[in-house]
Amino acid sequence: MNKVSKLTPIQKRRQRGAFSLLFLSFASLIGFGILQKNTAPVTYKFVLEKEWIAINEWTLDSRTGSYGFSCAALIFAIWAIFQFRRNKKIQLQSALGGFAILMAFLCWAASGKMIPFTGLLQGALLLSVPLIFGAMAGVLCERSGVINIAIEGQLLAGAFAAGVVASLTQNTTWGLIVAPLAGALISLILAVFAIKFSIDQVILGFVINVLVIGMTNFLYKKLLIPYQNTWNSGPILSPIEIPILSKIPLLGPIFFNQTIIVYLMYLIVAVIHLSLFKTRWGLRTRAVGEHPTAADSVGIKVNNLRFRNVIFAGLVAGLGGAYFTVGAVGAFGKEMTAGKGFIALAALIFGRWSPLGAVMAALLFGFADNLQGILSITGTPIPSEFMLMAPYIATIIAVTGFVGRVRAPAADGIPYNRGGSH
Length: 422
Fold this sequence. Notes:
It is a multi-pass membrane protein. By secondary structure, the protein is mainly alpha-helical. Helices cover 69% and strands 4% of the residues.
């Protein structure tokens, strides 16, 4: 007990992760292996379109597969414990162990079925796109010291603007141009009231969300439904196939045969990550989010920087909202973002306010969402109602701190008044 009490927070988190992986590996071995009665084969299909073929498909006995992957997870868990004892990182072991448990689950759940593995991963990426845009908007705001609960409203405004403008012009480009502006307009409301007037940022965010939902619902009912052919029948973006890269087995169809929104997402994530940690702007942004008084003392205009970053966050979220309309279905639907802004906020927390961490968390939520859809279609021993809960269970796990204690930027949500307390 005395030794445990001397562990640092990082060591405690690694210890929790290593032993959690060990517990889940044993549970997988028992539930998916020992108690597995069905020995029907499960088939994983890896070829999606016209990419080069490395492995077309892989068929194995479901019980044998569950045993094998569960035992592999146990090995990775033991490896993680040894790494923890040596005070080393366990991310690799945790990732490999988690993947092995997932494969054991798939062998059990898809017994006698076929899983389009490449399609599963491609769909997970697509479902993650608005989450990643929303999480990046959250990173920009909260690293600056402003809580952004209004991600949902920014996504919805971007989706509405993109859908309507693309319908009127029958041009997806105009939809992509207008969507960020709609998100920035919502961010302007957040910036003015949160930074200029020091309104409680959590309450303000919820009010903005309700405002955007109400406005879009009203316009949807009064304008988009009666005049659907003119106002709500926009085109959608076509995938752009990158030569050679799109032919790479498994990775090609997933990453390099996508629409322009997805390619813009790659660029935005890279720019935000590099700018946040490698530029003067990033240093100043992190400074005003952690200690605005110290930043002010060296000449940084705290509220001006916060204001600009919040507007930029709105541009990013608005572009993410365009994915729902011009990037997917074309037409705008009532409340079509369906809480994705809040899941993006959970991804931000799960990712510890880091751009790349938030991306990984968003991909996890997108994967859980797509997995339940595919397993519901193929048929599994799990009731469909429980499968529909999977993405939200992952979200709850993230925000309740199962992954360890996370700390927001120190000045997050605290208005800064020069010459006074903050």
